[in-house]
Amino acid sequence: MLGTIQSIKKKExxxxxxxxxxxxxxxxxxxxxxxxxxxxxLGDTVLVEGELKPISSLHNFFxxxxxxxxxxxxxxxxxxxxxxxxxxxxxxxxxWLKNWVLKQIDKREYSAYYxxxxxxxxxxxxxxxxxxxxxxxxxxxxxxxxxNFSLLARVLTFLFKKIKGTSKGKEIFLFFFLWLFSxxxxxxxxxxxxxxxxxxxxxxxxxxxxxxxxWALFQTFSLLLLWRPSYLFExxxxxxxxxxxxxxxxxxxxxxxxxxxxSLWVSIFAFFASVPITIFHFHQISLLSILFNLFFVPLVxxxxxxxxxxxxxVPLFSSLYGAMLHFLETTSLWFSTFxxxxxxxxxxxxxxxxxxxxxxxxxxxxxxxxxxxxxxxxLFVLWFYSCxxxxxxxxxxxxxxxxxxxxxxxTTSGKTMLIDTGGGFSSNLTxxxxxxxxxxxxxxxxxxxxxxxxxxxxxxxxxxxxNKFKVGNVIFNRGEYNDLELDLIKVLEEKNIPYxxxxxxFHLGNYKFYFLNDQLYNNENxxxxxxxxNFNEMKLLLMGDAGVEVEKNxxxxxxxxxxxxxxxGHHGSKTSSSREFIEYIHSKYFxxxxxxxNRYGHPDEEVLDILRSSSTYRTDRDGSVRFRKKxxxxxxxxxxx
Length: 641
Description:
- The chain is of the alpha/beta class.
- An eight-stranded mixed beta sheet has the order 13-12-11-10-9-8-21-22, with helices on one face.
């Protein structure tokens, strides 16, 4: 495969590079450090060999999907490189300059923050620190923003005024340097917006008029979407234009304020403008972010960012720069511990979206006469919306996509139960699946965490989840605890979370759940908890990893005919789901939680043949699957990859 290197990132044990092919499509490549390869640079033409695979990721409702993001970038495949040859070195002088800058950054002690401030790459910063920046709402500062760009433009304009020459020539040089700077930092959406916005203002020779500023912003918006339509789906693009539009709309109001009051209102307007995007993508807002941004925005934009560029060019005062970064991290970690003002916001449906658009414009125009009442009304609407999951609870059952593992969620009457957590095969499910999924559904607590048995693919993520999310109690299956279960029990005891092994039945809200597998076997899979309930007038049977022998015992002890939904045992393995059992329960829907292209060959073709009589849903093919009832009808929703 022959292509040109577009980006290079250093990971713990490999390079991650993007290669553009001749057809303009992109391919990501993992290049292990142990390969004997020459120094790679942007713009190099390389020939790579290795195993090529389509890009895939987990698909859950309202949770970020990397594969969807990649498709918008024309990025469809990933290759693990076994050999790499440079066929042609970079000849582009601008890329040569960018490569030089990257080399200088790589040599420095604080390279992680150089990359963060200049390129928006926070991968080198400790994860808990990055999470704290997100929690307090200042992660947008770790990329070159429109404010940074405007500051640079003012400095350059001031310098060019001191130089003799024609105004036309000065403008050409000004925009050349601004373009070069934009190129070096990667033409992020916010920088692109600032560059073209400034260009249209210069072109029209209008700076003071609110009307002309808004028109220039609209022209910039249109031009960037014509150039790259996928920008519309990028969060940075959405934030940049909506916040800029609102600040321009209220520019005359802001001009009437002075000093601290002006900065406070800028922070308030920026917060209100960003709320719709924040709710839609992240499902949580922090009211304190108004104050945090009031403190951090000028600190980063007018101090940290300029000092970063200065320190990169002139590596003096390293101890001072290190102390500054330590202060930034320490204060962010401390502020992130504040729970006051953090509201979890469920994902808005179409009606809430329409109401939000109407209310947003109402707020913009009503504010001019009643500013404080408008702010109070805005906050009241946000508070009411955050309470909707409690005020209007939905009864649902969801099979989550956790790769090669199991995880199911019941919600009813404001109560929640999570059955299994997956883990072992898919990394960091808590941060990338569970927490975003819970926030998107307005869930702030798991009342019951039920673990069907002690295998990694069913409870490997349990400790991480308990450490990062509120859990009421934990139910284990019968039998002796294994090492993984004992490790979890230590954490539960430290946090005073009650736990016990399953008995006969228990309640969740208005529903009763029954434990059917009351016999001990000589293996962990057959000791799985088998759970039955009549949930929202739907009969559900969840088999865990129980096998054929357990199925025979269940048919002997219980009348399980006409089950509506069966969670198929052991991910569709041939050790479960005998033809006799499937025909006996006569289920309408079969659920298989399984990883795409897993090494076990699940689900087995013989099992799939047995299940053909009814509708079968699989996470590797259908993503997350949700069941609920509306007006007496069963509604099945899938999050198709």
